[in-house]
Structure formats: structure tokens, C-alpha cells
Amino acid sequence: MSNVITAQMVSELREKTGAGLLDCKKALTESNGHLEEAVTVLRKKLGAKVDKLAGRSAREGVIESYIHLGGKVGVMIEVNCETDFVARNEDFKAFVRDLCLQIAAASPLYVTRDAVPEADLTQEREIAGAQVLGKPPAAVQKIVEGKLEKFYSTVVLLDQPFVKLPEKSVKEVLAERIAKTGENIQIRRFVRYQLGA
What confidence tens digit (pLDDT) does each residue in 72-90 have? Predict the structure, then answer.
């Protein structure tokens, strides 16, 4: 027996995920009215939508800057989208400002995992391997991979917990924005300045 889906439930799910009304209603129906299950359903569907949009050209967007109080940390970021309509949207601009705060607070070095130099990965593997000497080889491999994941979450922007929603990664929040706008959005590049560093 399925639960009745109310407008309030759809509104709550939409507010939580940023998905469209119809998508929210379908997800709630599929999950028998359970909000958390509906969020999972939407995340699975949004992932497919994000993959489909990823190949589209993103040549519009904004360049945003942020100077932290006291002037000791500054950030400049370029985030691209497909149309100037989205680039002028307040939600998009707020997301880019939040990314500036993220970079100022968490000090990532790279946007994606692909940008991490192989030399840095090799060095991290060696350090992690040296820390687990004497363990069985299979355990060593798992421990090293676990430490690499932790390394990624400190130096890669997309892998970090989002500054305003720590339960989600920056990549997950970006995917939600892509699904909400229906456009490809790319974090192209950023620079973080710190006085004396």
C-alpha cells in the first residue's frame, strides 16, 4: 500500500534537493512517500542527467573573487555554464560565492583528481606504505588506498565536504546544481592567495 503524496512532501523534497516538481513527485511515489529514500532515488537519477550534460560546451559563467576579513586570504574562481541566463541567476552566483568560501576555508590545491600530479600520488603512496610496514600485502593495499582517498579529500576541491552542507561533497552539490539548471556547469579553475605563504 502506498502513502499519499502531498504537495507539502513534494515541496520539502524539492527544497532539499533542488530537483523539479515532477521529478520530486515521481521519486516520492517510487519511495512510497519516504523522504530519505526519495532523496536517494533523485540522487541516482540526477547522476545520469549530470553524465548526459557533461559533454555539452560551457563557455559562459562568472569569475568571482573573495577577500577574507583582515585581508589575509583571497580567492579568485572561474565557474562556467552554458548560457548567460544561468550565469546571471542569483542561485548560480550564490553557489560560486560559496565555492570561494570553500576554497578560502579548506585550501584545496586542484579542482579534480585528474589534475593531481602523479609525483604527488606516488609520494603519498610511499608515505602510506611506510606507515603500515609488517602488515599482510592485501591489507597494505587497502590501507594505502584508504589513505589516498583521505589525501584526495584534502587537496581536491570536488572531493571535499561542501562548506555549507558537510554531509555532501562539492561534487554532489555541483551535480545538484547541474540537474536544477539543466545545464553543464564546470569549475574551470581557481587561485587561492594567502599572505606570507
Answer: 999 999 999 988 888 999 9
Q: Which domains does the chain have, with CATH numbers?
A: 7-53 (1.10.8.10), 60-112+156-194 (3.30.479.20), 117-154 (no CATH)
CA dihedral 104, 108, 109, 111 (to 10 degrees): -110
Residue 139 neighbours by CB under 8 Å, 6+ apart: 132
**5 Ramachandran zone, left/alpha/beta (phi>0; psi -120 to 50):** beta
| AA letter at 124 | E
What are the grid coordinates assigned to 163, written together? 562548506
d(CA 19, CA 36): 14
Among residues 38, 29, 37, which one has the least CA distance to residue 6? Answer: 29
Q: What is the pTM of this model?
A: 0.70
